[in-house]
Amino acid sequence: MSVTIVVLYHSSHGSVAAMAHEIAESIECQGGNALLRTFVAREPHDIVISKDDLIQCDGLAFGTPTRFGMMASQAKAFWETTSDLWLKGQLIDKPACVFSSSSSMHGGNEATLLNLSLPLLHHGMMLMGVPYEVPELLATQTGGTPYGASHVAGAQNSARLSKDEIKICQSVGQRLVKITRKLQ
């Protein structure tokens, strides 16, 4: 059974985009249809999210860099336009997960993941984290939390995703497809 998952992200220096692409690739490998969407077109291939994308999708992966423990303003501005979807209950019971990146190990990833979760919970979406059965969650020396996939980009925002971070992103995509199919 094919499912369509929107992978919605904002990326300033490329880390969150790299995570989004890992999640999307994992969704595709599971036979799902991943729709990569951004809040602002920064590259020619970027497709800006529409409310119809959210209404029509079966699930959502949502990520931004951390901004002092909060989501990027571009994402917040979009979610503030979705009251009409909330009033109609158009996102209720759709599975969702969150992902984030920060410059340092204690740069606010967990707080940001919780902050990213708030609009999803208000919309009645079913939030999924990363279960401890994912071995990389216990082994990682960089990003990865039970609240969602995360990445530590370094002070210059130049660190590539670690092997553990990639595996955690992939597990998020796999689980999102699995749970979405079960709910259908």
From TrEMBL:
It comes from Pseudoalteromonas arctica. InterPro entries: Flavodoxin/NO_synth, Flavoprotein-like_sf, FMN_Rdtase-like_dom. It comes from the Bacteria. This is NAD(P)H:quinone oxidoreductase. Belongs to the WrbA family. Its EC number is 1.6.5.2. One of its GO terms (molecular function) is FMN binding. Residues 5-177 form the Flavodoxin-like domain. The keyword Oxidoreductase applies. GO terms for cellular component: membrane. Keywords: Flavoprotein, FMN, Oxidoreductase. The keyword Flavoprotein applies. The gene is wrbA.
